[in-house]
From TrEMBL:
GO terms for cellular component: kinetochore; mitotic spindle; nuclear envelope. It is found in: Nucleus. Keywords: Cell cycle, Cell division, Coiled coil, Mitosis, Nucleus. The keyword Nucleus applies. InterPro entries: Mad1 (IPR008672). Residues 1-24, 174-206 are annotated as: Disordered. It comes from the Eukaryota. Residues 13-24, 174-197 have a biased composition (Basic and acidic residues). Signal peptide: none annotated. Its main location: nucleus. Residues 65-106, 380-576 form a coiled coil. One of its GO terms (biological process) is cell division. This is Mitotic spindle checkpoint protein MAD1 isoform X2.
Length: 583
């Protein structure tokens, strides 16, 4: 066996005697072989299998850990990008606030100007109202009289027109009803004829079917009667045959001795005739017995065939089991041969009694290393869980930032709408100024234009009321926009705090990952490079890792269950947040 370290120094005789005792010291000792190095065969692949498998598992674990680190770096880049986007959104929000303040100042100035215009217009309207009250009263009285006359005339005309329309409507309804009744009558007649034809066809078909069924029933009854008659005849014939047979047997038994009166020829003929009939009856009975025995034999043969089939299936099953047992025996023989060859190559093992001690020592070392690896894997699982929580919180922050962006866009749209409303208010103000100038010009006009002034005054009052409503709506909208902007500012502050907390958490996770990577590298170096000394040798090729694998599986299952529980809790928290947001 090739050794990677120089042979140990020779020890004294007392130390050798101490090590030869099985209880004094349980360390593993490697002895020098007398065989030269070139003559020793390399170890088989089965001995190195577990070492390579562990190396492959560790490489896969490192690859997974590298992918996790890459994901953490990507998350950091995404966090930085979101920070820049948040700064841009804050700049845009500040611009919107400045724009809103400027618009509010313009609104206040326009309100002052509109208030002055309203006061001046109210004074002018009051003067015009005082001037034209008398004329309005007279016009009102005349209008009342005219309305009464016009209403009476309209009532008469409307009553006459309504009577004419009613007459025409009634005539049209009568025509429609007559036409519809005729159409309905024709349709019903057609449906009746169609239904009669269908009923006749169905009746004819049913009668034909009934005739067929009746004929079939009669034929079947006749056949059944014929069969019954044949059965009765056959049964009577059989009874007669049996009766004749019994009578003939009785006659034969009671035949007296030949008398002197009967001739021998007649007796011989009678005996021959009786013998022929007996032979015929016996042949018929034998035929019946033969048929019965054939039927019984057929049933017995069927039962025997079924039994033989069951035996054949059982034999096939036993053969398959026997073949499997042979294969298992061959596999066991091969395993025994491999174990024997391995026993020859294991150092410090001279008999079967030394194997449990060797395996116990190796198992202790392997269990210690596997416990360390399990602790590291559990810690890594915890880190993965924390990373998932960080990802979830990051996604929540992304959603909140997207909502903040949408609200900022909505506020910008609302500001544009307010600007358009302000422009419409300014246009209305200009129009009111123009109307005021036209009123001032019309003051010099004659008193005949009183009605025109009254209509203009009413239009001005309505426009003033509308303007007041629009101004109130604008004030309410501005107040709401201010509240929304303040709330968005608070939300953005909270998001910034969350992002900073997540960044600190990711940095701590990165530091923990670096520490774990260094520990894994140290463990790999210890597992892969043993010094083959009696105290520090770590051989991982003949370890029974069933118990260790079961423990690792149990730990993995427990961690998976904890992950599922945490995910369920996170989903419940997200649902509660969504419900609270909707409320």
């Amino acid at each position: 066996m090739i050794l990677r370290t120089p042979p140990p120094r020779k020890r004294r005789a007392d130390s050798v005697a101490d090590h030869e005792s099985p209880v004094s010291d349980r360390r593993l000792v490697l002895y020098d072989d007398a065989v030269p190095v070139s003559s020793v065969d390399p170890p088989p692949d089965q001995m190195v299998c577990t070492y390579h498998c562990r190396q492959m598992v560790k490489s896969e674990f490192l690859v997974a850990f590298d992918t996790a680190e890459k994901q953490v770096r990507e998350y950091q880049s995404q966090l930085e990008r979101w920070k820049t986007e948040l700064h841009e959104s804050e700049d845009e929000r500040k611009k919107c606030q400045d724009r809103l303040s400027y618009l509010e100042q313009e609104l206040e100035a326009s309100k002052g100007r509109e208030h002055a215009l309203q006061e001046r217009l109210l004074k002018e309207v009051n003067d015009s109202q005082e001037r034209y009250q008398f004329q309005i009263k007279r016009c009102h009285e005349l209008e009342v009289q005219l309305k009464k006359e016009v209403d009476s005339r309209k009532n008469f005309e409307s009553s006459a027109a309504s009577a004419k329309e009613r007459v025409t409507d009634l005539e049209e309804k009568l025509q429609r009803l007559s036409e519809s009744s005729e159409r309905e009558k024709n349709r019903l007649q057609r449906e009746l004829s169609h239904l009669q034809d269908e009923s006749q066809l169905s009746v004819s078909r049913k009668t034909a079917d009934l005739e067929k069924m009746r004929l079939k029933a009669e034929n079947l009854e006749e056949e059944s009667e014929l069969l019954r008659k044949q059965f009765k005849d056959i049964r009577e014939q059989l009874d007669e045959c049996l009766h004749q047979k019994s009578a003939l047997e009785h006659e034969l038994s009671t035949i007296p001795t030949p008398s002197q009166e009967s001739t021998p020829s007649e007796d011989q003929n009678l005996v021959k005739h009786l013998r022929d009939e007996l032979q015929n009856y016996e042949a018929e009975v034998q035929e019946a017995r033969r048929l019965k025995s054939c039927h019984v034999n057929n049933e017995l043969l069927k039962e025997k065939l079924l039994e033989e089939k069951g035996r054949r299936e059982k034999a096939e099953m036993e053969l398959s089991k026997f073949q499997q047992a042979q294969l298992n025996a061959q596999n066991l023989e091969l395993e025994l041969m491999s174990w024997k060859s391995l026993l020859k190559e294991i150092p410090d093992v001279t008999s079967y009694d030394d194997i449990p001690k060797k395996i116990a020592g190796l198992q202790k070392e392997a269990i210690e290393s596997m416990i360390k690896v399990g602790e590291i894997s559990a810690h890594l699982k915890e880190l993965e869980v924390s990373l998932e929580l960080a990802e979830l919180s990051k996604q929540h922050a992304e959603k909140e930032s997207a909502l903040a962006k949408e609200e900022a866009e909505n506020s910008a749209v609302e500001v544009k709408r307010l600007e358009r409303m302000l422009s419409s208010v300014t246009e209305e103000r200009d129009r009111l100024n123009k109307d005021a100038t036209t009123l001032n010009k019309q003051k010099t006009v004659h008193a005949d234009g009183g009605m025109m002034n009254e209509t203009l005054v009413k239009d001005l009052e309505s426009t003033l009321a509308l303007r007041e409503q629009t101004i109130k709506e604008l004030e309410n909208n501005l107040h709401k926009q201010r509240e929304v902007m303040n709330r968005q500012h608070d939300e953005i502050k909270l998001l910034n705090e969350k992002l900073s907390f997540e960044a600190r958490r990711i940095k701590s996770l990165e530091r923990e990952g670096d520490r774990l990577r260094s520990e894994i590298a140290l463990l790999e170096s210890k597992l892969g490079h043993g010094d083959y000394s009696a105290a520090n040798t770590k051989v991982l090729r003949m370890v029974n890792t069933l118990a260790v694998d079961n423990e690792t599986k149990q730990t993995i299952e427990a961690l998976q269950a904890e992950l599922k529980k945490t995910r369920a809790k996170l989903q419940a928290v997200e649902e509660l947040k969504g419900q609270s947001g909707q409320a």
